[in-house]
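Form P-L/3: holo structure prediction, ligand ANZ.
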Amino acid sequence: MKKKTFQEIEKKWQEKWWKSNIYHADTDSDKEKYYVLVEFPYPSGQGLHIGHARSYTFLDVYARVKRMEGYNVLYPIGWDAFGLPAENYAIKMKVNPNVVVDQNIENFRRQAKSMGWSFDWEREIKTTDPKYYKWTQWIFLQFLKNGLAYKGEAVMPWCPKCKTICANEEVVDGKHERCGTPVSKKKASQWWFAITKYADRLIEDLKYVDYPDFVKASQINWIGKKEWADVTFKIDNSEESFTVSTTRPDTIFGVTFIVVAPEHPAIEKIKHLIPQQYKEDVETYIEKALNKSELDRISEGREKTGVFTGLYAINPINNKKVPIYVADFVLMSVGTGAVMGVPAHDLRDFEFAQKFDLPIIRTIKDPENGDAPVDSKEKVYEGWDGVMINSDFLNGLSPKEAKEKVTEILKEKGLGKSTIRYHLRDWSFSRKHYWGEPIPVVYCDKCGMVPVPEEDLPIELPYVESYEPNEDGESPLANITDWVNTTCPNCGGPAKRETDTMPNWAGSNWYYMRYLDPHNDKEFCRRDILDKWMPVDIYDGGSEHITLHLLYSRFVYKVLYDLGFVPGPEPYKARRIHGLVLGEGGVKMSKSLGNVINPDDMVEKYGADITRTYLMFMGPYSGNAEWSNKAVEGVRKFIERYYSLVEMSIKNPADVEDIEVTKELHRLVKFVKDNVLDFKFNTAVAKIMKFVNSHKNIRLTKSQAEILLKALAPFAPHLTEELWEKLGNEFSIHQQLWPEIKEEYLTDKIIEIPVQIDGKVRTVIKVPKEASENEVWERFKKSEAFSKYLNEKSVKTKKYVSGRIFVVVTA
Ligand code: ANZ
Ligand code: ZN
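OUTPUT (holo model):
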């Protein structure tokens, strides 16, 4: 009989898994819950890419280990299917986006199944399904009812060719992404979500969650809560003044000019003060500046522009006169729209001073440059270390102390006050596009804006022939008059529907809750089910989503929490960020380089298990990993070797158990489990490889073979399932518990490790052979040598060279 290929084996088990639903998480189970979440994909026409394959395998391995630990694990998947690519494709090809999206989803689903990921397919969701977005609309209504959604004017990018208001994310390098036309600006009314009301809590509640530090930092920076000082500079020879805003009042002795935003409303008021010979230049400059986009004005590296007004302002601290400029790098939307220029300590101000030949006064003697003159960009010091110089009574203070003092004096003089400001703005929540959730609101001549009653949801997106916006730049939905014209739920009179749709974010803000109760048509999710499953225990995603997606979904969850719909303040207990898959040589994978690896080709050539194991082995979880065909071959050899080792042992098992091998197996499974739970997937695989390589020719007993199978089962679920069956065991290995690990098998390999403190070996300690750095350190802490040599001293670095030496350097 011909030997079955790995691919044949994989097909067989996949069919059996999906038919018997072994990965379904039963809500009524008594087992403790564990919720593993991956960011759901946008089902693009290209299909799953290898990056998806890697991150979904990471979390699949994790979910499988958790299941084998005895948890009731939920690992769901769905499709984030609204968005511009589908709409753009529809416009180009004249097909309905629904058709395209469903084709793409089918392809993604096929691919996902071919990789053997243990998703709970009974809970699959799609954001474009009216049964799903009914609840996205319902959430919108809760925001509206509670004063957290409102309509307001905004200046938006406008594409003159497509005659459409663009979303900010559609404008790339000042051009409309779809057609390449440079965008201008247009006032438009927009929906907003009042996320700024939650700014403080979005910072404070980070204490509840386990996110990597850089992820927390990115949330905090985006919110950008800072203490500012607003300082009034009187205009020389007049009663008028400008109030500048600064985060660095400590540097006030370094002010050599003032800059005002071109759209500053006070310019109108002081126009009559501007000397005649400057007037025209100022007016021309302002006119030009107002035609540029904000992004253009502040983009880094752009040469600074500006114009002198002929006016001077008086520094309220030292009464020095400084020139007043108008320049477009100052935005009205930040602070007060006017700044005090301190070129020695702010890069933008430095560039401006160089361009206009303005003086530069260093006011901080800093640790990097001392008090050297600030004659190049590199010498601009923006930090908070060092001491104040050239600052009269502030000299010798630290910048922080100087800041306090200056603020206090300004307050006394009535020329300054401190204010808390945020970088965060309210969240623009509408788009003039077809392919999104309709906003459930109607406009009635008599009643004004009226929310659609909850029982009338969903407001379905109508089927249309043309997706282009209309002549007035309104959403394409505005053209569908029989959809737009409706009756007012309040008075029954004629009314018009809102034609804006929701942004891409809307469906992905709350999807992790819908998985819990995906077929419920009475509620977005039953409360007792939320109580049981929330929060998500571990959430994997890409580094491109650590700011906005995370912030928006945390915000939505908090609002639902305040309204009593969900059980806690935070949706995700822990967040982890995977790295990227790069092509050979560390370059980005791209079509033009021809180095794109397609998961389908890998499955066809090697099968899912080799692909999965390679993806886990190729590098650390959070690092970027380089593809290597040679390394794939190495993994193939390992899997084949592993397979035949177990197969041989099944045909011809060992007569007597070699207890040393059993001990090694126990250490192996402990290592694998600990490392997977620690997101060290690559070291876990490496350990199994090492075991197999050093035991090529042995035979195992049945119970030994079972342990070895369980160790690899999370990585290579199909082949281990096949061998499990061949061993005479019942379906399925994936419903077994992890092998019980005997403590006495773990600790008998004790080794001696010398401990070196500041260059001298001071003691030797006994530790288990597999001990981690932390374990060695804990053991060392209990030793006499620790209290003798290290008490009172602080440790600068410590390092364990595994199995060799432990090195400590004190501060
Ligand atoms: C004087 C100063 C001295 C500043 C110094 C910085 C360093 P961060 O801290 O990055 O949030 N600024 C204020 N309003 C502005 C506006 N409307 N448009 C452009 N820039 C504006 O930025 C705060 C700093 O941004 C403020 O502090 C101000 O420059 C500038 F050594 O004031 B600073
Ligand atoms: Zn366009």
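COMMENT: The pocket of zinc ion (ligand 2) is lined by residues 159, 161-162, 176, 178-179, 181 (CB under 6 Å).
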